[in-house]
Amino acid sequence: MFWSRALEKDTRGRTTRDGIRIYDPSDFAGMHKAGEVAARILDAMAPLVYPGQTTGAIDAEITRMVQEAGATSATIGYKGYQHASCISVNHVVCHGIPGGKVLKDGDILNIDVTVIVDGWFGDTSRMYVAGKLPRKAERLIQITHDALMLGIEQVKPGNTFGDIGHAIQAFVEGHRMSVVRDFCGHGLGRVFHAPPNVLHYGRPGTGAVLEEGMFFTIEPMVNLGRPETKTLADDWTAVTRDKSLSAQFEHSVGVTADGVEIFTLSPEGRFHPTYG
Ligand code: MF3
Ligand code: CO
Ligand code: CO
Prior knowledge:
Blueprint: E1 14-15, E2 21-22, H1 28-45, H2 55-68, E3 72-73, E4 85-89, E5 92-94, E6 108-117, E7 120-129, H3 135-153, H4 161-174, E8 178-179, E9 185-187, E10 194-198, E11 215-218, E12 221-223, E13 229-231, E14 238-240, E15 246-248, E16 251-255, E17 260-262
Antiparallel strand pairs: 1-2, 3-6, 4-6, 5-14, 6-7, 8-12, 9-10, 11-16, 12-15, 13-14, 16-17
This protein binds 2-amino-4-trifluoromethylsulfanyl-butyric acid (MF3) and cobalt (II) ion (2 copies).
């Protein structure tokens, strides 16, 4: 999501002095359900990604599955956005708009779905490939996935958001790839985008301190080339300025007494790789 100073605030219940909502232990169950619905939809997209398929047809199936689950799409109607998913192909960093685009052999894509179930938000995205996965793309996707999981390993009470960002950045840059700065993760729960901005770069020990009951996403975008992005005339599609390939993975997580709970784990165990 966009870096923002004007995030929606969920003022019910307790918030920290950084404006981060602290949820109750009983709230984890609702997040778990919402996250599972989103993850199950992403599992079901794997066979629909192939050369000749359109991104619009994939989105239509997501719309259908959201309804079938008795859930609501969080993105339809969000700031004028009209689709149940964002589908970002090759050098598109995020917020790709599904439509008539036809996938070709070797294209890589991120599918990002956010659903609302009983008022709780589940937000997750993963990478897919149409046809045969090119070698360079495979490396990019692997590093991006591993960077997300290293970030998640930092999630426990007492660590800081800077610890998360640093773990991601150090790993990605160690592999001579770059972390996108223009977009970040976000708090969520009863709202879609809440404080804090969860940056995917940073210094250890800086930023807000993690506390039990915080819910947020981690969703690093990694480029093979330079980190700069630009937004196209449609006001949504963000692309790499240098046209290099970009990848992203996203989980919604909650801080527990001694670590982390991932709400958006794949029921089929295929978060990565979703293909193959
Ligand atoms: N799911 C995206 C995120 O990870 C947000 C998409 S907003 C939309 O934060 F309007 F572009 F769909
Ligand atoms: Co998100
Ligand atoms: Co998302």
